[in-house]
Amino acid sequence: RREPLALINLKKKNEETGEEELASRLDHCKAKATRHIFLIRHSQYNLDGRADKDRTLTPLGREQAELTGRRLASLGLKFDQIIHSSMTRATETTEIISKHLPGVKKISTDLLREGAPIEPDPPVSHWKPEAVQYYEDGARIEAAFRNFIHRADAKQEEDSYEIFVCHANVIRYIVCRALQFPPEGWLRMSLNNGSITHLVIRPNGRVALRTLGDTGFMPPDKITRT
């Protein structure tokens, strides 16, 4: 779902028509629409919870999700779907946001769960997960990138607008990968709770970053980064 040439079985190319047939088949595989990807970081949550089910949104976190939902609704876009991490804080954030976007379907996935995507460079002293986490989480988060961040399907006729509610580490890694920056630099970015990051994927595969971690729609006293 990226490079059209990769979607064609070149072994089946007709030797008689040659390049003409190849060009025709390439046109059939080329994307025509633009994808707009809105990556939302979950709202503030209870850090004292031991299990995921206990890490619910705080009262402020629920306010943040309401503000994010209103902001997304105010854009006046026809959102196609909301795909969210299956972790409690992301699910609760999604439920609140979706109230402002009636009729938009919600899809839960384990691929977008929080984790350690890749060892950061330069390293930091305050966050040092076990090395095995990078192997376990990294493969999953890379799979999330490959599964969700790509140019539009060739059958897609109109531009699409999709929301992904997940986590800071996942979003930062996806941004680096999408922009073809060294993914090891993901930890150099910081994202507020309930923030909006907007990626645009053109039919030719070019990616643009419209906004990164925007919370300008929130009052200053509502902004957190927990």
TrEMBL record:
This is Serine/threonine-protein phosphatase PGAM5, mitochondrial. Its EC number is 3.1.3.16. SUPFAM superfamilies: Phosphoglycerate mutase-like (SSF53254). The gene is Pgam5. Keywords: Hydrolase, Membrane, Mitochondrion, Mitochondrion outer membrane, Necrosis. One of its GO terms (biological process) is positive regulation of mitochondrial fission. It is found in: Mitochondrion outer membrane. InterPro entries: His_Pase_superF_clade-1, His_PPase_superfam, Mito_Ser/Thr_phosphatase. PANTHER family: PHOSPHOGLYCERATE MUTASE-RELATED (PTHR20935), SERINE_THREONINE-PROTEIN PHOSPHATASE PGAM5, MITOCHONDRIAL (PTHR20935:SF0). Pfam families: His_Phos_1 (PF00300). It catalyses: O-phospho-L-seryl-[protein] + H2O = L-seryl-[protein] + phosphate; O-phospho-L-threonyl-[protein] + H2O = L-threonyl-[protein] + phosphate. GO terms for cellular component: mitochondrial outer membrane. It comes from Herpetotheres cachinnans (Laughing falcon). GO terms for molecular function: protein serine/threonine phosphatase activity. Belongs to the phosphoglycerate mutase family. BPG-dependent PGAM subfamily.
